[in-house]
């Protein structure tokens, strides 16, 4: 089977959620067989999932039966759902029972694991034979652009990730990232690939039940995005007694250097591994990782390409950069590179448009050991008074001096900085003027109650006024 679920002891626990529901590998295999007669291969299903055992069971069964799920949050806004529905015309919806009242007038076809399969009036249409699943592009709040994944992508990602994390059947990974987020889904692929257990939850990290779940289930690893670790830092994570926790992994964007170092040092002092990673939906999540033994010496680096992958840099003319410490666009080659985007239903019939090669859109350089460092996004730069200013770099300058949430946007006339603490407005501006050598009139600092973020914790820059 695609996800190796038939290779393991049928009684071994594949997943357990914070609601007390569990799922064995035998259950996964049986459910996949059950679903075979319920809906046809190549059908398009909108899988409206929550972080629970049922979400895992249905996504797995869809993929094993060559049914194509577009994996979305069960709490997707009505307007976005309607836009996607009208654009892609799914033949089925799979919804959590607690969300069922949002979808009226559709025939219920099948019920299991707290989810209901609904039949829509839409007719089937051509879908490419190797299309495994679809995910919204990272951070999209209203775009119908989807990432097209293949079955080969799934298997390559599962192999690569399980290899560099050294995953074992005895691992019990805490999954706080959403199933509809590429890094969350990749956790499912990689842990099932080795017969490990997923401990999945939608509890907030500030909830006591969250920590009770970690301790009771003896979680051995925790994966988060920078925002996750900012919360852990505020919650005095470093004083907690979590003897079973052996691995912390970070992805989902650049983390403030000081915070990165704080977690790296804590892990070293307590016999744990800290592994920072880099990835995109377009690369089926992770494409690079920093080995734990380099976590302190090369803090801030994304490290090396994942096993079976290759990183490179291209200059503005498209030539390969061979010298260290020279910036260029980072590119990745590997079997986990997805097939391309979909903008409309006809695009689901398209084959592989990337042929295993991805231009990431990130500017980077590598050091004398071949470790890569992200400088910023190609589009996240301003030209102010003739100076090229990196917005991501400015955010790092602020976070290095003031441990406060911030976001930088702007135009070539002015940089706009959003912070959550009004009393820091002047200090933040002064720090940026000092470090960037910009004139004060080129920077405006604004207070905001809370930065807009996606469910995965990424800042939604498009929702911030940049003028």
Automatic annotation (TrEMBL):
Residues 130-341 form the AMP-dependent synthetase/ligase domain. InterPro entries: AMP-binding_CS, AMP-dep_synth/lig_dom, ANL_N_sf, ATP-dep_AMP-bd_enzyme. SUPFAM superfamilies: Acetyl-CoA synthetase-like (SSF56801). PANTHER family: LONG-CHAIN-FATTY-ACID--COA LIGASE, SURFACTIN SYNTHASE SUBUNIT 1. This is AMP-binding protein. It comes from Candidatus Gallipaludibacter merdavium.
């Amino acid at each position: 089977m695609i996800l190796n679920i038939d290779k393991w002891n049928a009684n071994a626990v594949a997943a357990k959620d914070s609601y007390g529901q569990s799922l064995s590998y035998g259950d996964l295999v049986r459910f996949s067989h059950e679903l075979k007669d319920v809906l046809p291969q190549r059908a398009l299903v909108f899988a409206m999932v929550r972080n629970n055992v049922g979400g895992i069971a249905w996504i797995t069964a869809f993929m094993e039966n060559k049914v194509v799920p577009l994996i979305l949050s069960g709490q997707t806004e009505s307007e976005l759902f309607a836009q996607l529905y009208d654009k892609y015309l799914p033949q089925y919806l799979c919804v959590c029972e607690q969300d069922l009242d949002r979808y009226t007038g559709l025939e219920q076809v099948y019920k299991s694991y707290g989810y209901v399969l609904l039949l829509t009036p839409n007719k089937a249409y051509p879908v490419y034979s190797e299309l495994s699943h679809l995910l919204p592009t990272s951070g999209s709040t209203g775009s119908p652009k989807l990432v097209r994944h293949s079955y080969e992508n799934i298997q390559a990602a599962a192999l690569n990730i399980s290899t560099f994390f050294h995953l074992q059947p005895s691992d019990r990974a805490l999954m706080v990232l959403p199933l509809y987020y590429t890094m969350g889904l990749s956790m499912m692929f990689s842990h099932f690939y080795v017969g490990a257990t997923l401990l999945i939850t939608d509890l907030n990290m500030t909830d006591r039940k969250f920590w009770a779940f970690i301790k009771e289930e003896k979680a051995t690893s925790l994966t988060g995005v920078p925002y996750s670790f900012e919360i852990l830092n505020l919650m005095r994570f470093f004083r907690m007694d979590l003897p079973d926790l052996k691995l912390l992994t970070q992805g989902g964007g650049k983390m403030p250097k000081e915070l990165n170092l704080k977690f790296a040092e804590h892990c070293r002092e307590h016999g744990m591994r800290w592994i920072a990673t880099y990835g995109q939906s377009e690369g089926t999540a992770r494409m690079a990782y920093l080995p734990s033994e380099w976590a302190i010496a090369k803090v801030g680096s994304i490290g090396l390409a994942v096993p079976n992958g290759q990183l490179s840099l291209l200059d503005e003319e498209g030539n390969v950069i061979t010298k260290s410490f020279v910036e260029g666009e980072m590119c990745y080659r590997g079997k986990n590179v997805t097939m391309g985007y979909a903008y409309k239903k006809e695009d689901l019939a398209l084959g592989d448009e990337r042929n295993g090669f991805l231009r990431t859109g990130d500017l980077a350089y590598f050091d004398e050991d071949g470790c890569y460092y992200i400088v910023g996004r190609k589009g996240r730069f301003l030209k102010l008074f003739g100076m090229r200013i990196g917005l991501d770099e400015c955010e790092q300058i602020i976070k290095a001096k003031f441990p406060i949430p911030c976001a930088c946007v702007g135009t070539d006339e002015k940089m706009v900085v959003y912070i959550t603490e009004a009393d820091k407005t002047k200090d933040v501006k002064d720090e940026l003027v000092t470090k960037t050598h910009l004139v004060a009139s080129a920077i405006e600092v604004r207070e905001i109650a809370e930065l807009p973020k996606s469910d995965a914790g990424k800042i939604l820059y498009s929702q911030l006024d940049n003028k």
